[in-house]
């Protein structure tokens, strides 16, 4: 599919649009930069801009809403937010529940607003590419100029969040390639998106965040399912060789720090398996997972609540059951265990719905539709895949920033995908 007027530059195209489209375009441009480069609170502006754009629109032109799939996604958001508040109210932590649940309310606003605003996905892809390039450049600056040991972002972002979100941003740029290849000016967009994808890998490498690398093969498989089978074999082989060469160079070059981080993880794993008492980032995770699992067995249905979990971990440390330093961590460094141990079985089921519902909605379109539809479906599949991966070794959704980024990406991609269909 080749879009009309696609040769116009973004600033010129924006200047000629009515106010409704301008607001929606700014909302789609923001997430790519606000995820990593701007303070994360900037993301709260996105649903507000979309809501204002929706109120300025013509109701007669809006798409039918909600449909069955919209209700499924909305139910998953409501379920997660409600369980987060409800279970913590039961534990006497209502304010904390509200503080953690508000991103899901903003997701519902985004879902509704995009049903009343028709906007091109161009703005989202452009924002993601520019944001990924900025994040990679910032990571390079921190390592090469500031001599930081690991690249990180604005508080409360840190190296783990920054690196994994940088990786996801790069993957989303690569997801858009089927969209760029269907445009009249395919080469400028394709090169921009490839540069954004590579820059995301650079941000991840310079952050030293190892957790995101575990799921990279699965993410590559999703990209291949969406794009690879449409390419001739010589292109597939060439791209695979280029990817292997890039990943190999990131590992070999000492400036990236990848080799030392991987070697350190393997060494720590061997020490833990041998029964060493030395506390490393790897052994600490295994011990936190073991402690959280034992607490879950004590209260599998109701959970412990946030403060109750930390108090119980501190008691375990005081009793000599585990290392006392583990009591200072306020989450379990695993999203599934963290949801279960704090919010009980309802928390685990709500988290599974939050991941699996959008995964099912988007994965159906990975092999079908136009280039634009396929790009949005691949990107929508990659977001839960990436967050599931990130959540294996860190509690991403324990941070409002992590929840807001996940919810906004899912609802933005779904709103654009339902328009494209």
UniProtKB/TrEMBL annotation:
Q: Does the keyword Ribonucleoprotein apply?
A: no
All residue ranges annotated as the O-antigen ligase-related domain in the record: 200-352
Record has Transit peptide as a keyword: no
Its topology with respect to the membrane?
Answer: Multi-pass membrane protein
Location of this chain's protein in the cell: Membrane
Q: What domain of life does the UniProt record list for this protein's source? A: Bacteria
Q: Which residues cross the membrane?
A: 23-56, 71-90, 123-141, 161-179, 191-223, 235-253, 344-363, 375-392, 398-417
GO MF, one annotated term: ligase activity
Q: Which GO terms describe its cellular component?
A: membrane
InterPro entries the UniProt entry points to: O-antigen_ligase-rel_domated (IPR007016), WaaL-like (IPR051533)
A Pfam family cross-referenced in the UniProt record is: Wzy_C
Q: Which UniProt keywords apply?
A: Ligase, Membrane, Transmembrane, Transmembrane helix
Q: Which PANTHER family match?
A: TEICHURONIC ACID BIOSYNTHESIS PROTEIN TUAE
Q: Under which name does UniProt file this protein?
A: O-antigen ligase family protein
